[in-house]
């Protein structure tokens, strides 16, 4: 199956939270199962710097009229096949100081609605054949940054375009991508999309709500979280919609990449400190050089102490 993953972050290139870990590990796992997986990322500086052999693929027009480019390359991963990647070439939107979402003063960029609408729009353009050599069968969007991809795909389907499936994964429901209603006109969606059965959320535009409403399938990071977000206490105002769509909502427990999160380098230290008895002091003393090498701890003379 041809699968396009869409996210704003991907480990090891760019990470602000757990989203990046899953975005980096999932394509590798899918490829190991024989799937044809690729990723789409915004052209943030760290991403552009980390993608190898970037080459132009196509140009496309954003809903508000600007022209942008799409480039393709790959991310080299130690011990795994490279991840094929598309990067949106839009320096005016992505090549900025601060983190991916905020300026150096920790204020959200005023045009975040454009910056992340473009991510979903590019995914939908790929679903409609922007790259003549590869077209996804499923688009998998992660969190509010990519949440408009399912909406664009759903309306393209209504217009008679080829059917491409969509999956939307919620990593953190509290961050919803909410914008003033007058920005809706810039998004390139038909007016029926700004409705209670769509992106409208208390008179504003909610990217998260659009993903939840228009995606074919919904997933989240654990079975427990899938249940929690259907309650008023944890649903962040979207519990009613999530209960309405519970038939297509699944909780899939986040895994741990044992190549990244491996205790092997510090196994001697772990064995030494987990049994604080008198007969373990020789092992604890033997573990100190390991800790000093791995973590740059000072290799001070050992002594019997409740703290070490």
Keywords:
308 residues; alpha/beta; Rossmann fold; 2 domains; 3-stranded antiparallel β-sheet; 10 helices; 22% strand; globular
Major β-sheet strand ordering: 3-4-5-2-1-6-7-11-12
Strand content: 15-25%
- At the fourth CATH level, what is the homologous superfamily of the largest domain? Glycogen Phosphorylase B
CATH architectural designation of the largest domain: 3-Layer(aba) Sandwich
SSE class? alpha/beta
Count every beta strand, where a strand is a DSSP E run of 2 or more residues. Answer: 12
Number of structurally distinct domains: 2
Mean pLDDT: 89
- Residue windows where pLDDT falls under 50 for at least 5 positions: 300-308
Largest sheet: 9 strands, mixed
Radius of gyration: 23 Å
CATH class of the largest domain: Alpha Beta
Count helical runs.
Answer: 10
User: In the CATH scheme, what's the topology name of the largest domain?
Assistant: Rossmann fold
Topology order in helix (H) and strand (E) letters: EHEHEEEHHEHEEEEHEHHEHH
CA distance, first residue to last residue: 53 Å
How helical, in percent, are the residues?
25-40%
